[in-house]
Amino acid sequence: MPDHHTIKSNKHLQIFGDLLHNANLWHLNRRSVAKAFAVGLFFAFVPVPFQMLLAAGVAIIVHSNLPLSVALVWITNPLTMPAIFYACYIVGTWVVGADEQPFAFEASWQWVVESVQTIGPAFIVGCGVLAVTFAIIGYFGIQILWRYSVAREWQKRSLRK
Questions:
Q1: What CA–CA distance (Å, rounded) separates 133 from 125?
Q2: CA dihedral sign, ordered 141, 147, 150, 151
Q3: Is the pLDDT of residue 140 over 90?
Q4: Angle 30-44/51-62 helices, nearest 10 degrees?
Q5: Could you give the 3-state DSSP secondary structure of residue 80?
Q6: CB 54 within 8 Å of CB 15
């Protein structure tokens, strides 16, 4: 994990001021890691270019591990983004009850404007559904894994005695 002094002095995070001095933002414990998974996984499914900044802001507000929250946003990266966002669109069409619209990606502003009108609503709904779903799974999954790991270590300790 990066040094917290380096992150605290980052010019993009200066807007948070003294809020960066909360110990939970830098320590790995069950609660801060579970919250970090919820925050990071949620914002991984938010289709905006400043996901990391949003994740950092919410991590500071909810006192989750800041570096982990920001790092988990990178689940959606240039390699995984097409598949993940296509899955969001498919889930959105299912939730909204709309038919799938054929589309081919083009790197133009005109395509973006046209797509917002045709596939946009289903895509946004799908992103929201998957963001909430994976945030919940991430939060409770880490809680369960952490407790299981601690219980297993206690068992090992008691067997050694």
A1: 12
A2: negative
A3: yes
A4: 150
A5: coil
A6: no
Task: Give the model's pLDDT for residue 91.
Answer: 95
Cα 4 off chain centre by: 20
How confident is the model over 108-130, as pLDDT tens digits? 777 767 777 788 889 899 999 99
Q: With contact defined as beta carbons under 8 Å apart, do 20 and 60 qualify?
A: yes
Closest CA to 146 of 27, 59, 28: 28
Residue with the two structure tokens 């507000």? 61
Placement of tokens 């669109």 in the chain: 89
Tally of CB atoms within 10 A around 60: 20
**By the 8 A CB rule, do 27 and 65 touch?**
yes
Residue pointed to by tokens 């919410």: 58
CA distance 46 to 81: 11
| Chain centroid to CA 136 | 11
Average pLDDT over residues 38-67: 92
Q: Do 75 and 44 meet the contact criterion of CB atoms below 8 Å apart? A: yes
Amino acid identity of 103? F
**How far is Cα 36 from Cα 27, in angstroms, rounded to an integer?**
11
Residue with tokens 């369960």: 144
The pLDDT > 90 percentage for the chain reads 46
Is residue 126 within 8 Å of 93, Cβ to Cβ? yes
- Say if pTM beats, i.e. exceeds, 0.85: no
